[in-house]
Every structure is written in C-alpha cells, then in structure tokens.
Amino acid sequence: MKSTTISHLLRRPGPVLLDGGVGSELARRGIRTSMPLWSAHALFDHKGLQTLTKVHEDYARAGAEVLVANTFRTSRHTLRKAGREEHWRLVNGRAVECARAAAAIPTHPCLVAGAIAPLEDCYRPDLVPLQADCEDEHRRQVELLAELGVDLILIETMNCSREALAALVAARDCGIDALLSLCPRPPGHLLSGEPLDEA
C-alpha cells in the first residue's frame, strides 16, 4: 500500500481527480458489456484484460489520481447470476492487478480504488436484496478487495440508504477508507424516494 492515502489527497487544496467511466470506455473500445456482468466480461479473456489495462493507463497518463479497479460487477452475487461464481477471487485479482499496473506509470501519486456496486440494478431500488444479504455480500467483497491491496473502496451509484450503509459498514469494519456516490433523482431524493439529506 502507498504512503499517500485518499485522506491526504482530500486535505490538500484543489480537486482530487478520479478516472472516468471504465465500463463505458470498454464498450467504446469493442469489449462486450452485456448484463449481468457488464464491464466484468473484460476479465475473462486476454483481449479484455489488455483493453482494460490500456483504459487504466490512459486515465493515469491523463492525470487521474485514483484509478477504479474494474470490480463494479465482480461480486459473488453477480458472478453467481452469470454462472461464474467459482471465478470470484480470480477476476477480482485480475481487476486489481490491471489497475495497479497502470497506477505505477505516472509520476504523481495514483491510488487504486476497489469498486462496490449495488448488488442488483443501480436504477432499480425495488430489487435491493434483504439487508442481511447486502451486509454479507458487501462484507465479503470489501474484505477480498482489501486483501488484494486496494488503497480505498469506492461505493458507487447506490440507490437506497440501507445498501449504502451495508457497504460503508463493511469498509469501516475492514479498516479501509471509503468514498460513497449515490444515485439521486429530483428534487433531492435517492432513487428509492428517500430524501438525500436523510441518507
């Protein structure tokens, strides 16, 4: 793990630059991104891994200070739906390795974040699993990503507070820094209908 942390970057003046979309960039470059695996398809073959590493490298060279590993759709829950749960450790390891290799390129500090996504569709809060399932799945994923050496966890596009909380608690209990992004809808609510100021 690097001596620079997300806390250090956030305390200095100015913005912290994260990379751009990985899944959409993989799709633009011709990699399959069908559901339920979405961007995780890239982790199952040589062409996908090469393209993924190049995406990370391009973002690092453009000045990104945080590269988000391609773990948005690599939870056991998602892999199980695709009939590939046995590859859980392998694909998460590949995702972190690709991002870590690219993070070594720039001369500026470049951290690697492990992405944690909603277990179901980001835009369908009605599909969020039972709380115990959210807690178990996110805990296992955070623990694996920490074991694989990510510098922080990026909890992305959460559409309801209870699943966001499950992921945040998992990161806290694992002792790893976390950032959270929420999926809002006007006027000032999460997609679940909860007011943002209460989330």
Account of the protein in words:
With 199 residues, the protein is of the alpha/beta class. The chain is 41% helix and 13% strand. It is globular.
Second-tier CATH architecture = Alpha-Beta Barrel
Which sequence of SSEs, written as H and E, runs from N to C? HHHEHHEHEHEEE
Number of helices, where a helix is a run of at least 4 consecutive DSSP H or I residues: 7
- Which CATH top level class fits? Alpha Beta
Strand order of the largest sheet: 1-2-3-4
Rounded Rg: 16 Å
β-strand percent reads 5-15%
**Main sheet attributes: strand count, strand direction, barrel closure:** 4 strands, parallel
Count of extended strands: 6
Please name the CATH topology: TIM Barrel
Shape: globular
Number of domains: 1
Please supply descriptive tags for the structure shown above.
41% helix; TIM Barrel; two-stranded antiparallel sheet; alpha/beta; 7 helices; 199 residues; single chain; 6 strands
Task: List the topology elements.
Blueprint (H helix, E strand, L loop, with lengths): L5 H6 L11 H6 L17 H16 L4 E4 L6 H6 L6 H16 L7 E6 L14 H17 L4 E7 L2 H14 L3 E5 L1 E2 L3 E2 L9
Helix pairs in contact: 3-5, 6-7
